TrEMBL record:
Pfam families associated with the record: Glyoxalase (PF00903)
Name by which UniProt lists this protein: VOC family protein
Matching PROSITE patterns: VOC
Organism of origin: Pseudotamlana haliotis
Domain (VOC) ranges: 2-113
Coiled coil: none
Entry-linked InterPro entries: Glyas_Bleomycin-R_OHBP_Dase, Glyas_Fos-R_dOase_dom, VOC_core
């Protein structure tokens, strides 16, 4: 099995498209301001946005995007006006993470985990 895509809700798809393009995703589908799909700059995954009349309540969605040169990438995004809730921080689970939100409040974690993403020291045998 391979993960094809993740889709997040948005009240204003056009506003979200601009945001995710700023993050570096490449827009490949845009239909009538109700749906958009991106391809990630690395790997084979896609990411999409669909229009909703109301956002889900509660914890919502958390999206993780891995970036090898995380600190530099965050600095580039800050220079483009992207605001962060947490700047790159070493976490106890051996990932370095920066936290932000998209225009609809979906949580985004930009991170670098290296080999610890799939092979942490506590991995099940």
């Amino acid at each position: 099995m391979n993960l094809n895509q993740v889709t997040v809700p948005a009240l204003d798809v056009e506003k979200s498209v601009a945001f995710y393009k700023t993050l570096g995703l490449e827009l490949i589908v845009f239909s009538h301001s109700r749906y958009a799909r991106f391809v990630c700059p690395q790997g084979d995954a896609t990411f999409s946005i669909h229009e909703v009349e109301a956002l889900p309540q509660g914890c919502g969605v958390t999206i993780y995007f891995e970036e090898v040169d995380l600190d530099n990438y965050v600095e580039i995004l800050q220079n483009k006006g992207i605001l962060f809730n947490q700047l790159p921080t070493d976490m106890p689970w051996l990932w370095r993470e920066a936290h932000l939100e998209d225009p609809d409040g979906n949580q985004i974690i930009l991170y670098y985990a290296g080999e610890n993403r799939k092979d942490p020291p506590w991995k099940l045998k």
